[in-house]
Each structure stands twice: as structure tokens, then as C-alpha cells.
């Protein structure tokens, strides 16, 4: 029987030149950090996870060492308690699934149900460009085979001056690519960076924007209100034909239960690296399906997080699209996936998961050594 022998956590930093100015931040980012979690069994096999910083995990290793890594539900319960008392340590769940796949010789997507071995992607942009540049970027996505794109609205005074300027960017994209792309919009109203005190939109603000998005045939509007306003989200959902999406930074699975039961969103977007891991989010796949709510994860961590969300979506889910963070040159696949030997690549807007046991992660050990900060 396989038993967990050790858990290792390391922190890494990639310097960014030119910097990445994310629409949800406003402050240029001059580096990109990644936390790598390794779980080894007594036979030398290694499971890998990544995502949040694993704050609060130190000192809890003994709760896992000596256990069978395949006892995923048991480990999930322990991680849920650590999450309550300390921080988001869900990357360990990803590493355990990766290790369990290597023990059994199966890819995680098949272990999760085996619905399919690939997912269709939407290109998720992150930079606030002027309308003509946004239209040019959309054309590039079309040429690469994507059939959907997410456009960011500014979250604070550090970006475009108002949502009306954001709509102008959408109009330029529609004029350029027509209906060749489904367009999603991230309104960036659900949460703020710690330094950003800008108030979120009111319900009436959001409804006015929704009317503009209806005119432009937008597939969904994401986080149009503060994350706590479920009644407002439900009312907005009922008032507009645009799908309402959200939940990317939600901390607890029971919050998603309430969202689903209230039919507050049309689309839920948990990220397995940030809430519940693969084990917890697998529950949400089935709850959402039975309620007629779309499940399609957030995935703005790194390539390991993208892979983990993709395996869940392919194996158990039925989402029409999965988020693929990708906005050259500031957010290239090479930057996003710097811990990997090779960055993930798409084939005409699809991510193929293949037959490699576990999550199919191959780390670039030399780069990780060169970028290690802790």
C-alpha cells in the first residue's frame, strides 16, 4: 500500500519585464510568484500541486504523513478544517490527486469520471487596452482558433475612466470580429485588491450596464455586484438576458451551495486551487448540473492550476468553455507556466489532456531552483 512519506512546499518568483498591469489591480506587477507543493510516497512517486500560498499549513504535515494518498475524502476533510482555522491550502489536494493518479496509472480526468479528455477554452484577457488594440487582440484569438474571449472592465480609477469606455472596447471588438467570438465580460465588482477602496456598482448601475451588454450579445457578465449581494445578483439575473457569473474567490463550499439553491448565478466559477480543491469542487459539479447552473472554473494561477481545473471540467463537468489566461505579450503562456518544462499550449482553442498518469505535470527543476525565494 502506498503511504505518504513527505510534503515539501517551496516558493518561487519570476521577474516580469515588461511588467503586467492587471485590470483588477491597476498597479504594474513586476514579478509573478508561484508556490509548489510536492507530496512523495514511500516508493518515490511525487504528486505536484500549486495555487495559493499554503499559509497556515506549516506544522500540520503529520496529519497526512503515513496516510494512503488515495484516501482523498479523508484528506479533504482535514484540509477543510485547516482552511477554516488558517488559510487556503487546497494545492495539497491537487498534489494528492496527481499522486493518486501516478499510483493507479490513470490520468485524473479519467479517475473523475472520464467524460472526455479535452476541454474547449476561452481566451481570458487581463490587460486594459484601448478599443483598437482590444479589437486587434480579438482578431489574434480568432486566428489561433479560439471561439470565445473574456474582456475585462476596469475595477478602479487605475484603469479606464468609466464603464462607458469599457463598452467602447467591446463595440470595437464586435465591429472587428462580428459573431466569430462569443464574448464574456468580467465587470470586476465582486472584490478588490487590499489597497483599492473604490466602491462596487449598485444594482441600478449593473442593470444599466447589462442593457448595453444585451445589445452587444454578451455571453455572460461576471461579478457585476459585490460578492455578498446574492439578492442583487438574483434580481439582476431575472432582469436581463445576459448570464450572470461569479464566485472565483469564494472561500467556502457552502457559499456555493447557497448560490446554487438561490439560483443567484447562471454560472459558478470556483477555482480548485483556491476553494475545495478537486475533491470539493467535484461536489459542486453535480450540484450545479442538477440545478441547471453552469460550472466553469476560474483558473488565474499558473499552468498547474489550469491543468487541475481542466481535468475536473473534462472528467466530470460539461462546461462549454474553460478559462485560459492568455494575453500576449504581458501575460504569455511562457510567463504563466514558468514552473513547467513546457508551457501549456492549445490546439485551435482546445486543451488536450492526454494519457499521462495524474495531472500530467512536468516541472522545470532548473528554473525552479533559479527562481526560489523560500
TrEMBL record:
<keyword id="KW-0479">Metal-binding</keyword>
<protein>
    <submittedName>
        <fullName>Mandelate racemase/muconate lactonizing enzyme family protein</fullName>
    </submittedName>
</protein>
<keyword id="KW-0460">Magnesium</keyword>
<dbReference type="InterPro" id="IPR029017">
    <property type="entry name" value="Enolase-like_N"/>
</dbReference>
<dbReference type="InterPro" id="IPR029065">
    <property type="entry name" value="Enolase_C-like"/>
</dbReference>
<dbReference type="InterPro" id="IPR036849">
    <property type="entry name" value="Enolase-like_C_sf"/>
</dbReference>
<dbReference type="InterPro" id="IPR046945">
    <property type="entry name" value="RHMD-like"/>
</dbReference>
<dbReference type="InterPro" id="IPR013342">
    <property type="entry name" value="Mandelate_racemase_C"/>
</dbReference>
<dbReference type="Pfam" id="PF13378">
    <property type="entry name" value="MR_MLE_C"/>
</dbReference>
<feature type="domain" description="Mandelate racemase/muconate lactonizing enzyme C-terminal">
    <location>
        <begin position="131"/>
        <end position="243"/>
    </location>
</feature>
Amino acid at each position: 500500500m502506498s503511504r505518504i512519506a513527505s510534503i515539501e512546499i517551496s516558493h518561487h518568483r519570476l521577474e516580469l519585464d515588461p511588467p503586467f498591469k492587471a485590470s483588477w489591480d491597476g498597479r504594474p506587477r513586476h514579478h509573478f510568484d508561484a508556490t509548489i507543493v510536492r507530496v512523495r510516497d514511500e516508493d518515490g512517486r511525487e504528486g505536484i500541486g500549486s495555487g495559493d500560498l499554503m499559509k497556515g499549513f506549516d506544522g500540520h504535515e503529520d496529519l497526512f504523513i503515513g496516510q494512503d494518498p488515495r484516501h482523498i475524502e479523508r484528506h479533504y476533510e482535514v484540509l477543510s478544517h485547516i482552511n477554516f482555522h488558517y488559510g487556503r491550502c487546497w494545492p495539497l489536494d491537487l498534489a494528492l490527486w496527481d499522486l493518486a493518479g501516478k499510483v493507479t496509472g490513470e490520468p485524473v480526468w479519467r479517475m473523475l469520471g472520464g467524460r472526455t479528455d479535452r476541454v474547449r477554452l476561452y481566451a481570458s484577457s487581463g490587460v486594459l487596452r484601448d478599443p483598437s488594440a482590444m479589437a486587434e487582440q480579438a482578431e489574434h484569438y480568432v486566428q489561433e482558433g479560439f471561439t470565445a474571449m473574456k474582456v475585462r472592465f476596469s475595477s478602479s480609477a487605475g484603469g479606464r475612466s468609466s464603464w462607458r469606455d469599457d463598452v467602447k472596447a467591446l463595440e470595437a471588438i464586435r465591429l472587428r470580429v462580428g459573431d466569430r467570438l462569443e464574448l464574456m465580460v468580467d465587470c470586476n465588482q465582486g472584490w478588490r485588491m487590499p489597497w483599492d477602496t473604490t466602491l462596487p456598482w449598485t444594482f441600478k448601475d449593473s442593470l444599466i450596464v447589462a442593457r448595453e451588454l444585451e445589445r452587444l450579445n454578451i455571453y455572460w457578465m461576471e461579478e457585476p455586484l459585490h460578492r455578498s449581494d446574492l439578492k442583487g445578483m438574483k434580481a439582476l439575473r431575472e432582469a436581463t438576458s445576459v448570464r450572470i457569473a461569479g464566485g472565483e474567490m469564494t472561500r467556502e463550499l457552502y457559499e456555493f451551495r447557497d448560490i446554487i439553491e438561490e439560483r443567484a448565478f447562471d454560472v459558478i466559477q470556483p477555482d480548485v486551487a483556491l476553494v475545495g480543491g478537486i475533491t470539493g469542487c467535484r461536489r459542486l459539479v453535480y450540484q450545479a448540473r442538477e440545478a441547471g447552473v453552469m460550472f466553469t472554473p476560474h483558473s488565474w494561477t499558473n499552468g498547474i492550476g489550469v491543468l487541475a481545473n481542466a481535468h475536473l471540467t473534462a472528467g466530470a463537468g460539461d462546461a462549454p468553455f474553460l478559462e485560459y489566461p492568455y494575453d500576449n505579450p504581458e501575460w504569455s503562456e511562457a510567463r504563466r507556466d514558468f514552473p513547467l518544462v513546457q508551457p501549456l499550449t492549445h490546439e485551435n482553442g482546445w486543451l488536450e489532456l492526454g494519457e499521462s498518469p495524474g495531472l500530467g505535470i512536468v516541472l522545470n527543476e532548473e528554473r525552479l531552483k533559479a527562481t526560489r525565494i523560500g
